[in-house]
Amino acid sequence: MRFSGPIKFGLAVLICIWLLSFVGCAATPYQPAEENFAGGYTDIKMRPDTYRISFEGNAYITGEKAYQYTLYRAAEIAMEHDCKWFEVLNQDEKTRRDWAGFLGYVEKPRNSIIVRLVAEDPSADAYSAVDIMNSINVK
Predict the structure, then answer these.
(1) Spatial separation of the C-alpha atoms in residues 99 and 101, rounded to whole Å
(2) Tens of pLDDT along 23-52?
(3) Structure confidence by residue, pLDDT tens digits, 99-117
(4) Cβ(54)–Cβ(46) under 8 Å?
(5) I need a surface site. Which of 1, 54, 94, 109 has the fewest CB within 10 A?
(6) Span 44-63, pLDDT tens digits
(7) Measured CA angle at 32 (ends 27, 36), to 5 deg
(8) Cα–Cα distance measured from residue 127 to residue 130, given in angstroms and rounded to the nearest whole number
(9) Coil, strand, or helix at residue 110?
(10) Under a CB-based contact definition with an 8 Å cutoff, are residues 71 and 137 in contact?
């Protein structure tokens, strides 16, 4: 069976939409945000022991999961600097409304924390980097 040009184009568009519906329905994975249109984490060193860590997801991830990913990244940074703990100094949780084509407007969670790395004598509010990395599943 042979299809004409307009029919081939229409079929190609339908196949692309079908594929995007499956690919686009996955929650943002734990990944660096650089060059990932689906989102991910970023971190900025503010002082030698202080970082701002953000995670922005797509419409298929919850705000709670975005917060967990910021904590996980903080734990990674703490371990990279031989610190066993970190303290969350500030937290900011927002959603961003974006146009997603045929899906219309979608809400994308964005969570940002400022953390201070702690090598010794943590406060009662400090998080254990090892415990965070063992309790949050990023796969």
Answers:
(1) 6
(2) 456 888 899 998 767 789 999 999 999 999
(3) 878 778 888 899 999 999 9
(4) no
(5) 1
(6) 999 999 999 999 998 888 99
(7) 65
(8) 9
(9) strand
(10) no
